[in-house]
Amino acid sequence: MADERRESSHPHFNDRGAVRWHTRLADALAEAKREGKFVFVEYGRYA
User: Hey, CA dihedral for 1, 24, 22, 33, is it positive or negative?
Assistant: First the structure.
């Protein structure tokens, strides 16, 4: 679990750790459930 608590940054730019980002939905949902928080889903594609 030490890796889960590590600071995470946005996968495409440096947000200075403002938000914990995940690239797998299952990981984000599990963390949100543990902490009683919501999940924001950012979706896009490379142009």
Answer: negative
Residue 8 Cα to chain centre, angstroms: 7
Distance CA 31, CA 43 (A): 19
pLDDT at residue 47, rounded to an integer: 60
**Residue 17 to residue 9: CA distance in whole angstroms:** 5
The domain ranges of the chain are: 2-35
For the stretch 1-40, pLDDT in tens is 444 445 567 777 788 878 888 888 999 999 999 999 999 8
